[in-house]
Amino acid sequence: MQIKNKKVLEWIKRYLPAELISIIITLVTSIWILTQTKSNMTMAIVGTWAGNFGYFGTILLNDIIITKRDLNSKNKKYTIQTFLKNLRALFVEFGIAEVFDSLIIRPVLMYYIPIWLNNVSLGVIIAKFTADITFYIPAIISYEMSKKKFRDFE
To answer: What is the pLDDT of residues 55-88, one digit of tens each?
Structure first.
């Protein structure tokens, strides 16, 4: 049980800051785009991609900070090759999950749920959390499988 709790805490520490940033960006962008375009389709697509930018930007920034800290403690430098390894690890962790999430699941949910609920803010939040379920299952599996092979930055 302690190993399971440790894993859950690791995932929360890794994903929660990015989720918080993503929720804010997704919600603000979606509402703004809808007021500007009056198009639920545009809102769904732009909201999805703006949220992704905030999410993956946060994850990548955290990965860079952690990697730099680890390398500095070993008197090693963070190089462009290290940065490319950070990007590769991110791609391995999220690639499969992200393709389905960003191109199909999330935009569809962000289009329909606000319409069904007749409430943009609540609909966007529910769509985001619903899409997160199908996103995190393959992402966490990929993260766990790739930790040893793709997260050695020395």
So the answer is: 999 999 999 999 999 999 999 999 999 999 999 9
The per-residue pLDDT for range 25-61, each reduced to its tens digit, is: 999 999 999 999 999 999 999 999 999 999 999 999 9
CB under 8 Å, gap of 24 or more: what pairs does 144-148 form?
A: 144/7, 146/89, 146/92, 146/93
What does the radius of gyration of the chain's CA atoms come to, in whole angstroms? Answer: 17
Identify which of 96, 98, 69, 94 has the alpha carbon closest to the alpha carbon of residue 82.
69
- The single-letter code of the amino acid at 53 is F
What would the two tokens of residue 22 be? 């993503």
Question: Rounded to whole angstroms, how far apart are CA atoms 65 and 61?
Answer: 6
CA distance 152 to 142: 15
At 86, which amino acid appears? N
Question: pTM of the predicted model, to two decimals?
Answer: 0.89
Give the span between the Cα atoms of 66 and 80, in whole angstroms.
15
